[in-house]
Amino acid sequence: MRTILISGGLALLLSLFGTPFLIRALAKRGYGQIIRDDGPSSHHTKRGTPTMGGIIIIFASITSYLIAHLVSGNAITASAALVIGLVVSLGLIGFLDDWLKVSRKQSLGLSGKQKIFGQVSVAGVFAYLGLQFVDKNNLSPISTQLSIVRDTALNLGPILAIILVVLMVTATSNGVNLTDGLDGLATGASVLTFISFVLIGVWEFGESCAVNPSFNCYQVRDPLDIAVLAASFAGACTGFLWWNASPAKIFMGDTGSLALGGALAGMATMLRIELLLIPLGGLFVIITMSVIIQTLYFKVSGGKRVFRMAPLQHHFELMGWGEVTIVIRFWIIAGLGVALGLGLFYADWVAG
User: Fold this and answer.
1) For 47, how many CA atoms within 13 A lie in the half-sphere containing its CB?
2) What gap in Å lies between CA 351 and CA 339, rounded to an integer?
3) β-bridge partners, 50
4) d(CA 310, CA 336)
5) Side-chain half-sphere CA neighbours of 202 within 13 A
6) How many domains would you assign to the chain?
7) Which residues share a beta bridge with 32?
8) Fewest beta carbons less than 10 Å away: which of 8, 144, 287, 312?
9) CA proximity to 125, closest of 111, 110, 142
10) Is there a domain that residue 140 lies in?
């Protein structure tokens, strides 16, 4: 527990006090946000706001995690190391996309195909390595069994397990990216989901088969260390949110959104709660579905739209809702999703 508190608290401080330095450095070099011309007109006032703020989130999270382990003397686990590798790799893809946008002074970075190829490649390597590194209890970081609130009896096998993880990572990283359209929206929702991972990781450790063998114990390799890592991301996002809240002084950019999405999917996979990520990250799912629905209906109906604009948050902007109102109400939705996910997790335990 001390390691969790150190990791989360230090990440909060690093992000809270480190972000202003990053803002000044980015502003000095003119690395400002490029706004799409086809977006809501109110967003044009945000043009030039420093972007690529995901750099500080990634730095604060990983640094605090490592320092917490240095202080506690605990070893870094394979599970956490793999998630960190996934986060850094996706962050680099996002950074390249952001860099191309600011250097070209237009909202065209990597193409959609290039970005998807990068995400799929990184996720594939992550999934493959996650099936390796078997410990003394014969547990690998990633299981080949389909998991909901824990591993089920359905064994997917290595190939299908890798495909599932690739789909999860790609969908979640893009989901967070789509949600990152209003000041503080994706950051605040991510904090709630990371906190749920802390709670689940601690619970799984206390009731793990290695610590407390029982008919209802959890077969998870490194739940407590994933909880430590989740605490560092929750703290880093909270500190960043201080500066990202409306009116934002900095945006996380694709650097942050792709990295956070990867962290969410990676941790859910390591904790054996793959499908539980649907309610825990419910807001990201809803916003992603709004884009899918809009796109499919537009093609089928010959140009008609379900929403005034997708992603969903922009639909409500065009309806006249204020940005802060949308963000707070969407945070409530995210919180309800987290509550539902935690309720399902605990209900499984009670039911035995």
Assistant:
1) 13
2) 18
3) 32
4) 22
5) 14
6) 1
7) 50
8) 144
9) 142
10) yes
Let me know if residue 62 belongs to a domain. no
- Residue in the structure block whose two tokens are 């204020």: 322
CA–centroid distance for 101 within its chain? 22
User: pLDDT tens-digit profile of 225-257?
Assistant: 999 999 999 999 999 999 999 899 999 999 999
Instruction: State how far the Cα of 266 lies from the Cα of 143, in Å rounded to an integer.
Output: 12
- How is residue 174 written in tokens? 């893009």
**Is residue 233 assigned to a domain?**
no
Question: What six digits make up the tokens of 177?
Answer: 């990216």
Domain membership of residue 327 (yes or no) is: yes
**Beta bridge mates, 155:** 145
Residue 170 lies in domain: 77-226+246-351
Mean of pLDDT over the chain: 92
Torsion angle (degrees, nearest 10) of CA 194, 339, 169, 103: -60
What's the CA gap between 1 and 224, in Å, rounded? 9
By CB neighbour count within 10 A (0-12 exposed, 13-18 middle, 19+ buried), where does 351 fall? exposed
